[in-house]
Design a protein that fits this description.
Keywords: DNA-binding, Transcription, Transcription regulation. InterPro entries: AraC-bd (IPR003313), Homeodomain-like_sf (IPR009057), HTH-like (IPR037923), HTH_AraC (IPR018060), RmlC-like_jellyroll (IPR014710), Tscrpt_reg_AraC-type_HTH (IPR020449). The protein is an alpha+beta fold. Helices cover 49% and strands 19% of the residues. The protein folds into 2 domains: 3-187, Jelly Rolls; 194-305, Arc Repressor Mutant, subunit A, CATH 1.10.10. The protein has helices spanning 99-105, 110-116, 134-153, 158-187, 194-209, 217-223, 228-239, 243-261, 266-272, 278-289, 293-305, and strands spanning 3-5, 19-27, 35-37, 40-54, 57-62, 65-69, 75-78, 84-92, 129-131. Helix 3 (134-153) runs antiparallel to helix 4, helix 8 (243-261) packs across helix 11 (293-305) and helix 9 packs across helix 10. The chain is globular.
Length: 307
């Protein structure tokens, strides 16, 4: 079953101290269980390697990688016996991004967009990770160390300095992401429109991260500046599914995670992913997964116990 790490474990006063930094070495015996947070977790891998279990899939991590886990996303790490890796965690609350601050340090609204869709790319499309070049990796590590020093020394103004350094860090990562996308664009042989591809990926990512959303298709399409008809055509071409089919698919995948990692009732899971009618959800689940939600939970728990 999953755990939920609350901000109060690290941020004694999230309003006045909305950032917490820690450096640690993980070994197999002290890895956290599958969990979610009530805060953002930005992770820099200092050295070593591991597998990152994220939203029901596994992805490799190496030194120089940065990933950003949003509130409510399930994850943990996996190691082989005898292995270890070192990381720096930077935890911060959504409250950090007050409008007054954003106007001053992010006038173009890039950080807000980045936090919704971190490290978008084609490979490992839904794993929010970027592999940094050595120069950028050293700068990221230096910024995190400076934030950690401010936290330890707790001198006058340290909370404000930490917050400013976090904004600097996020802008640096935005630059790295944009440069990586530019390089990929130059070497890519695909003939599909970049803007079309980006629209599909961003809406797909939005649905994955917000499966409970009840926005009409017209409103969602309008937010991305396209018509519903055009959007459905793009989705069909790119994914083989219409928008509505993709929404159902994303919700069922999320339900499978919740059934695996929580003890929530089926009716509560249905409501959490956007289905007010639990009977409709159960019928849809049986049609897509070929078993009931309760049976799926039972089978997944049985597999977990016999690994």
């Amino acid at each position: 079953m999953r755990m939920k790490f609350q901000a109060s474990l690290y941020l004694k006063d999230p309003k006045s101290l909305p950032v917490y930094v820690e450096r640690k070495v993980h070994r197999i015996e002290d890895l956290p269980p599958v969990h979610e947070h009530a805060f953002y977790e930005l992770v820099y891998i200092v050295h070593g390697h591991a597998s990152h279990y994220f939203e029901n899939k596994y992805y490799p991590l190496h030194g120089g990688d940065v990933l950003l886990v949003r509130p409510g996303q399930f994850h943990t790490y996996v190691l082989e016996q005898g292995e270890s890796f070192e990381l720096v965690n930077c935890l911060f609350m959504p409250e950090l991004f007050e409008r007054e601050w954003l106007k001053a340090v992010d006038p173009k609204g890039q950080i807000e967009s980045f936090l919704m869709h971190p490290f978008l790319k084609r490979e490992d499309e839904f794993h929010p990770r970027i592999s940094l070049e050595l120069r950028d990796a050293r700068r990221v590590e230096r910024l995190l160390e400076e934030m950690l020093d401010e936290q330890k020394e707790a001198r006058e103004g340290h909370a404000t300095i930490q917050r400013l350094k976090l904004f600097e860090l996020l802008h640096l990562l935005l630059r790295c992401q944009n440069e990586a996308m530019g390089r990929a664009k130059q070497t890519s042989s695909t003939k599909r429109s970049d803007s079309r591809d980006l629209i599909v990926r961003r809406i797909h990512q939005f649905l994955i991260e917000n499966p409970e959303q009840k926005q009409g298709m017209e409103l969602l399409a309008g937010q991305f500046g396209v018509s519903v008809r055009h959007l459905n055509r793009l989705f069909k071409q790119d994914t083989g599914k219409t928008m509505l089919e993709m929404l159902h698919y994303v919700r069922i995948e999320r339900a499978k995670e919740l059934l695996m990692h929580t003890s929530d009732r089926v009716v509560d899971i249905a409501a959490r992913i956007g289905y007010e009618d639990a009977s409709f959800f159960t019928r849809l689940f049986m049609r897509k997964v070929r078993c009931s939600p309760a049976k799926y939970r039972e089978e997944m728990q049985h597999r977990s116990e016999h690994r």
